[in-house]
Amino acid sequence: MDEKAQMDEANAQGNEEAMQEDQEPPTAPSSSSRVNEDNFQLMFGRLDSLATSMGNLTTSFDNFLSMVTQKFGSIHGGNQ
Q: pLDDT per residue over 15-74, tens digit each?
């Protein structure tokens, strides 16, 4: 009976320690601000890649327009 009580007490202490480990550390504000900084960098990185994609799309569209213009120009030139 005494051994069982001691084991129960040891288990309870182990559970308390495990619960304390799950709690947030006191440095949570600094880590959360670091997370916010990472999110901003990620967001700006995505905006940068979006701007690059838009630039590539604009270049492709310009190339397409010039190709169409050249084709129509050659058709009109051939008809004359």
A: 555 555 555 555 555 667 788 888 888 898 999 999 999 999 999 999 999 999 988 877
Of the chain, the end-to-end C-alpha distance in Å amounts to: 111
Q: Where are the domains of the chain?
A: 38-80
**CA dihedral of residues 8, 10, 13, 18 (deg, nearest 10):** -100
pTM, 2 dp: 0.39
Q: CA 39 to CA 62: how far, in whole Å?
A: 34
Compute the C-alpha angle 12/14/16, nearest 5°: 70
